[in-house]
Specification:
Layout: E1 2-8, H1 14-24, E2 30-45, E3 53-69, E4 72-80, E5 86-91, E6 96-107, E7 111-117, E8 124-130
Antiparallel strand pairs: 1-6, 2-3, 2-5, 2-6, 3-4, 4-5, 7-8
Length: about 130
């Protein structure tokens, strides 16, 4: 396993940036191990709800984790607001970096990830194959 440390800058869309990095580096299988930083806006999809919640204000990224490949990302994140309230869920496009996002990605060179429709869940789910 190799690691790839990243820093996203103010104005970057967290999800879109990670997906663009995966495509540009042709990452066949990777995991976001952790991320910290801050956001000026967040869009999180909560469990059992189809549409993401739009949150605005200053937020700290407490945790960021998920899978990443050229097929896209499946990311979960917890954030806190200025009052210490914590929100968490599935990361949607529109999570905008405020000052920085420092992210550690693990590259799994012996595997390939794809997203394929799962009849049981009705969603495109992770399929792991040896490379």
């Amino acid at each position: 396993m190799q690691t790839l440390p990243l820093r996203l800058v103010p104005g970057d869309d967290l999800r879109a940036s990670l997906e663009a990095i995966a495509r540009s580096r042709a990452l066949s299988a990777a995991f976001v191990l952790q991320g910290i930083g801050s956001l000026s806006a967040a869009r999180l999809r909560y469990a059992g709800i189809d549409d993401p919640a739009q949150l605005t204000g200053d937020f700290e990224i407490l945790t960021l984790a998920g899978s990443l490949s050229v097929d896209g990302a499946h990311l979960h994140m917890s954030i806190s607001d200025r009052d210490g309230r914590v929100f968490g869920g599935h990361v949607a496009a529109g999570c905008i970096v405020r000052t920085t996002a420092e992210i550690l990605v693990a590259l799994l060179e012996e595997h390939t990830f794809s997203r394929e429709n799962d009849a049981q869940t009705g969603f495109p789910e992770l399929v792991v194959r040896p490379r």
